[in-house]
Amino acid sequence: MSTKKRILFIATEMSPYLELTEFAEVINKLAIKSNDSGLEVRCIMPRFGVINERRHRLHEVVRLSGINVSVDNDDYPLQIKVASLPNARLQVYFLENEDFFKRKQIFHDDDESWFEDNALRTVFFCKGALETVKKFGWPPDIIHCSGWMTGLIPAYIKTAYKKEPVFGNSKVIFTIGENTFTEKLGADFLKQAVINANIKEKDLEAFKEASNTALFKGGASFADAITFGAEKIDKKLVDEFAKVKGKKVVPFKGWDSDLTEYLELYNDLAGK
Predict the structure, then answer these.
(1) Fewest C-beta in 10 Å: which of 5, 16, 136, 216?
(2) Please, are residues 235 and 213 in contact by the beta-carbon 8 Å criterion?
(3) So what's the pLDDT on residue 20?
(4) Domain named Starch synthase catalytic: which ranges (predicted)?
(5) Nearest to residue 151, comparing CAs of 209, 221, 100?
(6) Does 1 have pLDDT greater than 50?
(7) Rounded to the nearest 10 degrees, what angle do helices 23-36 and 260-270 cross at?
(8) What global pTM score does this model have?
(9) Which tens digit of pLDDT belongs to each residue from 7-47?
């Protein structure tokens, strides 16, 4: 049996598949550096329609098929595809759904209008990622979430999935990045985000504004550790989370950092 510590990256974006901010490249480097450092690494991200399946050699993982994800009283089929990260021996898993991720735009249509179902897409991705890990039967020691679309995952692990053995020893890191949208996820976001009986709307109070800042705030509130992943971060978040009792906080050290600060955090939280 492997004694390696396991780290799971759950990201909205990751180079070379999708690059919305500079942090996409950081996630790529972190995954490779973690793998090279002796950690067992897996990555999960949405399979947006702009990600070229042929170019990146994605293929369906048949053994993981058959998952349905229930969101807002509807069931949506989850298809899982996988690719090998270029120049690294590690797997990236892509979550796909015809309704939410097949379109050839990401969060806005061709007229720059915000998709009305971005809230449902977010809930589906966060729940789908955790259901995928359950299907793996692969308990991660560290779960590193990045990108606003992963904001609900720390909350879900501490509430909706707190009784799941696969997450029983998982420590969660959440990266606060730069704001990339000004719209809201809608008045029903909290109701839609309640995915089972172990979570209530009141548990999600930090997310109530349903804004980019709120997604970061909520994710950071439930995480065991926080990192700052950009130079330009909402000042309210910096003021609130730069020093938090009971949480390890890693400041942003520039785009040219060798990322050692992350490896130290992973090893610290994993108990090495």
Answers:
(1) 16
(2) no
(3) 95
(4) 6-228
(5) 221
(6) no
(7) 60
(8) 0.96
(9) 999 999 999 999 999 999 999 999 999 999 999 999 999 99
Cis ω on the peptide bond leading into residue 165 (within 30° of 0)?
no
CA 179 from chain centre, in angstroms, equals 15
Amino acid sitting at position 131 = E
Looking at per-residue confidence, does 89 or 229 come out higher? Answer: 229
**E strand residue ranges, 136-261:** 142-146, 171-176, 225-228, 248-250
Tell me: pLDDT of 223 over 60.
yes
Report residue 206: phi and psi, to 5°. -65, -20
Domain boundaries, the chain: 6-270
Contact 195, 70 (CB under 8 A): yes
Comparing CA positions, the residue from 244, 249, 95, 80 lying closest to residue 173 is 249
pLDDT per residue as tens digits for the range 154-198: 999 999 999 999 999 999 999 999 999 999 999 999 999 999 989
Structure tokens at 242: 């730069």
Q: Residue for token digits 């298809």?
A: 79
How big is the CA angle at 77 (ends 124 and 143), to the nearest 5 degrees?
45
Q: Count other Cβ atoms within 10 Å, centred on residue 185.
A: 28
Spatial contact of 59 and 81, defined as CB atoms under 8 Å apart: yes
Check: CB of residue 172 under 8 Å from CB of residue 145.
yes
6-270 is classed in which CATH architecture? 3-Layer(aba) Sandwich (3.40)
Cα–Cα distance measured from residue 267 to residue 47, given in angstroms and rounded to the nearest whole number: 29
Least Cα distance to 48 among 7, 89, 5, 104 occurs for 104
Percentage of the chain beyond pLDDT 90 is: 90
